[in-house]
């Protein structure tokens, strides 16, 4: 996954692979490590997937860890900010934010898949 600072203008169209990596690392892995494991996360040391199958396995693992962690939160946990990480909003806000991000970026992936299937006006590709 690459980033440029400052961001290029115009911004490039991102790929399905980039969006999956963003969901796996930026949306889930950071928060899973901060909120539920109490440790920092090093995105540069993460072994980004080299194939779609690998990315889907990483997504399933991180989402499973996220879901399990959220299910363990008490009402008091939801009212307070996480103990680790830079985010100082109550956990209920963080849970809603992460789930909104998953929906948002998941929908973008679906759109990119649809565009790929119908590219050049051809019959849909099977993916």
Automatic annotation (TrEMBL):
Which residues are in the DinB-like domain? 10-109
* TM helices/strands, residue ranges: none
A Pfam family that this protein carries is DinB_2
Question: What name goes with this protein?
Answer: DinB-like domain-containing protein
Species of provenance: Streptomyces canarius
